Amino acid sequence: MESVLKIEHIEKYYGNKGNLTKAIDDISFDVNKQEFVAIMGASGSGKTTLLNCISTIDRVTSGHIYMNGEDITKLKGNALNRFRREELGFIFQDFNLLDTLTAYENIALALTIQGKKAKEIDEKVLDIAKKLNITDVLKKYPYQMSGGQKQRVASARAMITNPMLVLADEPTGALDSKSARMLLENFEYLNKKLKATILMVTHDAFTASYASRVIFIKDGKLFHELRRGEDSRKEFFDKIIDVVTLLGGDLNDVI
Amino acid sequence: MLFKLSLKNMKKSFKDYAIYFFTLILGVSIFYIFNSMETQTVFLNVTSSTREIIRLMIGMLSGVSVFVSIILGFLIIYANQFLMKRRKKEFAIYMTLGMSKRKISQVLLIETFLIGTISLVVGLFLGVGLSQFMSVLVANLFEADLSEFTFIFSEEAMIKTLVYFGIMYVLVMIFNTISVGRCKLIDLLQASKKNEKVKLKNPILCTILFILSVGVLSYCYYQVTANAMTLTISSIGWLMIMGAVATFFLFWSLSGILLKVLMSMKRLYYKNLNMFVLRQLASKVNTTVFSMTIISLMLFLTIGILSSALSLKNSMTANLKKLAPIDFQASKEWNLYDIPAINQQQYVYTEEEKADSLVPITETFKKLNIPESYFKDIVIVHYYGTDEVTYETTLGTEKEYVSQNFPAIRWNYRELIMPISEYNALAKLLGSPTYELSDDEYIVIADFDQMVTIRDEVLKDKPDVSFGGKTYHAKYDHTVEGFTEMSSNHINTGIYLVPDDAVNDSMMMEEIFSANYNAKTEEEKYQIENAIQEPAGEGYEQGITTLTASSRISIYEASVGLGAMVTFIGLYLGIIFLISSAAILALKELSESSDNKERYAILRRIGTDEKMIHHALFLQIACFFLLPLTVAIIHSIFGIQFANIILATFGDEQLLPSIVMTAVFLILIYGGYFMITYFSSKSIIKER
Q1: Is any Cβ of chain B less than 8 angstroms from the Cβ of A32?
Q2: Is residue B243 part of a domain?
Q3: Residue B263 placed within a domain
Q4: For residue range B254-302, what is the model confidence (pLDDT) as tens digits?
Q5: Domain final residue, candidates B556, B590, B625
Q6: A174 at the B interface (CB within 8 A)?
Q7: Contact between residue B617 and residue B273 where contact means Cβ atoms under 8 Å apart
Q8: Strands (DSSP E) along chain A, which ranges?
Q9: Does any CB of chain A come closer than 8 Å to the CB of residue B133?
Q10: Closest residue by Cα to residue B308 from B671, B666, B639
Q11: pTM of the full predicted structure?
């Protein structure tokens, strides 16, 4: 299968010579097209740093990240911004919606900054809203929406540009279990029907069980990898729990 | 420990404080400059009459200073409350760490003290520096030559500045203590989490209010321009209140309407970050309607005061050439035995004065030892009057309107009458046109605008005037511009010119002596002026005579002094208003920059170009600054016209340079604040 994202021996160090922290310590993996990958790890394991490096918000200390063959660690300035708005879609734990804009406008914003025409924007927004079942909240402001609705609006914003890769950082972190389930079903829909490639960071086994592959990280290193294959979600969830137990302490507390 | 904390806080948040600091320093230095005026003028080489005006100006400036300090006080307290709001989280951390409210107040106390001290010191240094330049301007305005440069430092002004600002800072400390005392930990902790609620206004209500306020404003504009002359003081007051209220509702409805209209322009709205900018702006205008109104009105006052003061000054000087064309004029009441009690007003003349009133001016000069050789081109004219021609008989038809505008008018006061040949002789000397009259005609000359309007209204029907058994017809159906007595302004309320044989000596009321000084150079004229001034003054003090005199030189000096005074007070108030309004806008914008920081971070995360972000920021701040200014400018267009009509002294050619000057001040101060705000905001939203 064709790989969208190829990560080669990346490292990220913080601090100085005397006090060096290796947030990411030589990690390599590939993400294939139309894959739904979850990255799991305890807090402090380096999973968010990894996501930040892939999303070009942070820079790696060494190593390379290729996206569709292009080395994104070499990008600078406006090329970086262009890459971010055209090839990536973001979903954040705290939604990151602009509170002064309506849902419709928040989704449209991703297109207006690409310089798209108003008519095209309108068609696309209504289309994605229908698919994500948020047509009735389009006129509302973030403060009028529930957490689940907000996250679906954020997903719509991430998807509307047809990005090569959707990055989700703890997307269910601020949601109650019902909204979380609904959102994850939406993710499945995005992945299967809209053929989106999704890379999701989470520390929640339930959330991870919706992915087709789970990568475990511990202390900045790759710890384990699980593929769902033909398993049901329940079986996959149990397998994840087993690994989490192996991972030790911290994570048990969260489940 | 607390001191260290305060110092660290200040260093850390210097960027946020910059504009507050900047405003304080400006306020201090301006306050110092205008209060050190006395010291600045001491060195000037001016005549005693100018000195008199300077003394008056200094008195007025110190009165205005009290008003200014109240405005600055409000500004400082307001600005400080803003800064306090931004630091809620910091206070919350102190409180969770167990610091008592008293300790927090102490930290704030030390901070205020430090900021106050530093701003006072820097501001005073700046003020002393700038006042050196100011003294050049002062000398220029009073048309005095600054022979040599003297370093000017006013201890008095410094102490005054220290005291006034000291009081303001103490007030700030009290306010801070109160607001810290009121804080609740839970509110402080949640302060940063507040989610902005976008209150949507009813679009129909907005539209109605918008149309209504535009309508009311147009009505006010119409009243103050087209109907300006018919306005009474109380109706002007009402118009001002109506205008202010309409301005408030204009801003209230504008935020809703503007957004609605621009949203419907889809191509514009969905372009780049336009919708973000518009939403930001709308929400800001929405939450700051009241401040916007105040700022807009303050800007309006600034523009009005600055441009009117400057053009008043210019036109005063320009009027002089026309209205004070000769060197000397003296007038004397004639035959005080015969004046009816009402004309004497409150003053009861002594027997000596009554006797003196039958002595001609030339005789009086001899008594006062003023030789006739001082004068040349002498013309003597007289006012006549009769109880048959009073305001009652001439203006009676417009009684209601006249009483409204001139509540102090005495209806049985005699109109002034002058025979045509006497007037023509004087007109020749003054350089005014002369007139011909046939036996049964009369002309009214006047140049005081309000009175001209009234008299024109009366003369439209060409009413006859009868006295001494004869009737006279109006030659023209309007008044003719003209004057008989020198002054710095158009103040002739009306004089009836009649054929020579219509009057006789028994009707004589006043004698006027007009002449030029018998001198070739300006210097010689000054010598004569001084030589006359002393004996004339003595005679007056001893009650020898009821002579009143005016000279071109004294009118000129008074006028120049008055012009300078108006300019200074205008500058003082104008600059303070400008600084206050710009500072409020800047602080409002900056205090929200922490919220904005989050928003711009989101924009960056979804991949917006840096250039687009900066453009959006610029657009947002520019609109925020321009909105109140635009409204203020529209107000000013009509306000200045109104001032023009009411003061009736300056023409358009006088207005242009003063408007240019006003614009320069606006661009410098307001534009300066805008630029500082933009650059500070830019650095605040910068990604670290």
Answers
A1: no
A2: no
A3: no
A4: 877 888 888 888 888 888 888 888 888 888 888 788 888 999 999 998 8
A5: B556
A6: no
A7: no
A8: 3-15, 20-32, 36-40, 62-67, 70-71, 88-91, 165-169, 198-202, 213-218, 221-227
A9: no
A10: B639
A11: 0.78
